[in-house]
Amino acid sequence: MRKKVHVLAIAACVLALAPAADAQLLPGGLPSLPSRLPVVSDVVDGAEDLTTRTARGVRDLAGLDRLKALLRANPRVLEPDDQGRPVVRGEVLAVSPRPEALRRVLDAGFVEARRVRSPDLGIELVTLTPPRGMDARQAVRRLKALDPSGDYDFNHIYAGAGLASTSGLAVAGPTVAGASGARVGLVDGGVDAGHPDFRGVAIEQRGFTKGAPKAGAHGTATASLIAARDYGSAGPGARLLAADVYGVGPTGGSASAIVGALSWMSAAKVPVVNVSLVGPDNGALRAAVKALVGQGVLVVAAVGNDGPAAPPLYPASYPGVIAVTGVDKRGRALPEASANGQVAFAALGAEVRAAAQGGRKASLRGASFAAPVVAGRLARLTASPDPAKARAAVAALARSAKDLGAPGPDRTFGAGEVDAGR
User: Fold this and answer.
1) What does each C-alpha distance from 262 to 4, 282, 317, 338, 388 come to in angstroms?
2) How far apart are CA 49 and CA 32, in angstroms?
3) Would you please indicate which residues are annotated as catalytic (active-site) residues?
4) What are φ and ψ of residue 310, in 5° steps?
5) What percent of the chain has pLDDT over 70?
6) pLDDT over 90 for what percent of the chain?
7) Is residue 355 within 8 Å of residue 361, measured between CB atoms?
8) What are 233-271's pLDDT values in tens digits?
9) How far is CA 144 from CA 92, 150, 209, 393, in A?
10) Separation CA 297–CA 302 (nearest Å)
C-alpha cells in the first residue's frame, strides 16, 4: 500500500505542472480530457498521451495499463493476444519460415500480406492474414499446429514509459547541420529535428509505419537526451539515426515496425541502439535483437515503469541487452521502475529536462529517459559494431559509474548510476 500511495503522490505532483488540453481524439485513438482538467500523459508516439477519464478525475497509467487502454479504444484495428495485450488485428508474424512450411500454411487458407527480408539480420519476416472468421489467438495456435518447429507470433504493440509536462515558450528552430561524432541509433517516435537543442546535430530519420516519420514528444525527448548540442550524453557532434516506429494511428509501435527499424540499424552499422519501449516477449523482436547483439551492437533498453511486481518487459529482458533503470536526483530507485534480473546501469529518471516539440522544454520522469543517457555514453566508447569492443565499452562505463545501494553491482542499480558526462 505504501508504494501505491507513493506513486499516486508522484502523479499528483506532475498534475500540478501539466498543461490543460482541449477535448479531442489523441493519436492513439483515446479521448483527451476536457480543458478544465489537467492532463498527465505518457508521451508515447502513435499511442501518445494515453490518458483516461474517470469519475474521480485523472489517473496516470503504467505501460501495460496504457496498452490495455489503447486496445479498448481501438477494437476495429487491435485485438487481444492470449494474455489480453494488444496486437494488430488480422496479422500474425512468421519468422524465417521454411518454404515447405509456408506452402502448407498458405494451403490452409492463410494469405501472405507482406514479406520483408533483412540480410543484415539474417531474418525474413512474413506477415500472414488468417482465414476469415479466425482471430489472432486462433491463428497462432493453428500455425503452431501446422508447423510445430516454426516461429509464429502476434504482431504485438509496444509503448514507451515516462511522464512529461511541457513548459516554456516556443522558439523558432534552426536548420539542422551535418556533424561528425558518436553514432547512435534510436528506435522510438519521430524527432522534431528543427528544435534549437539539435543545432549542429546530424539527424537522419526514417519511418517504419503509417505516416512516419512524424515528430512526436517521446522521440524528441529521447533524441535530445542522446544528441542535444549542450546536454546530449553522446557528446558534441553526435550523429543520430532515428527510426520512427509510431507514425500516426493506433497500430504504431508494432513488433514488425520495430524489427524493420532494427534491420536499418544493422545495415547502417551503428554501434549502439536505444530502445525506450516496453512490451511482451515476441518471436520476431527476439530474433532481431539476438542478431544485433551477436553482431556486437549494444542494444540499450528501458526496464519500464510497471513496478517490481510486473512481468518481465521486453526488449530489456532479452539476453545481452543493456537494461537501464531510473533513479531520482538523490540516487534512489524510482518506485515504479519494473524489476529486471539483468539491470546493467541506472541513470536519472526523475525531473529530467529535455527537448519538447515546438522548441519547448519538458520535465520528464521514467526509465524511458534514463536509457538514452547510457546509450549516448556507450556510443562515445565504441565506434563500430564489434563484440569485443562492445564488452570493453560496457566495462569502461561500469568503472566510471557511481556505485549505489550495496557495494558493487546489484540487481537494483546494476553497476551504478551513469550521468550525461558533458
Assistant:
1) 36, 14, 17, 24, 21
2) 8
3) 188, 218, 368
4) -70, 155
5) 80
6) 75
7) yes
8) 999 999 999 999 999 999 999 999 999 999 999 999 999
9) 11, 7, 27, 40
10) 16
Residue 216: CB partners within 8 Å, gap ≥ 6?
A: 27, 43, 45, 46, 48, 189, 190, 244, 246, 357
pLDDT per residue over 305-356, tens digit each?
999 988 899 999 999 999 999 999 999 999 999 988 899 999 999 999 999 9
Query: Is the preceding omega at residue 271 within 30 degrees of 0, hence cis?
Result: no
**CB neighbour list of residue 196: distance below 8 Å, 6 or more residues apart:** 171, 172, 173, 174, 359
Determine contact, residues 45/27, Cβ cutoff 8 Å.
yes
Query: Cell digits for 418?
Result: 551513469
> Is 193 a residue whose pLDDT tops 60?
yes
Q: Give the model confidence (pLDDT) of 98-139 as tens digits.
A: 999 999 999 999 999 999 999 999 999 999 999 999 999 999
At which residue does the C-alpha cell 477494437 appear? 75
- What Å distances lie between residue 63 and 85, 171, 270, CA to CA? 11, 31, 28
Give dist(CA 416, CA 405) in Å, integer.
8
Query: How many residues make up the chain in this entry?
Result: 422
pTM: 0.84
Q: How confident is the model at residue 163 (pLDDT cuts 50, 70, 90)?
A: low
| 178 pLDDT more than 50 | no
Q: Is the pLDDT of residue 9 over 70?
A: no
CA–CA separation, 186 and 279 (whole Å): 17
Which residue in 336, 208, 367 sits closest to 274, CA to CA? 367
Residue 341's pLDDT is what?
Answer: 87
Give the alpha-carbon dihedral of 224, 230, 234, 235, to 10 degrees. 160
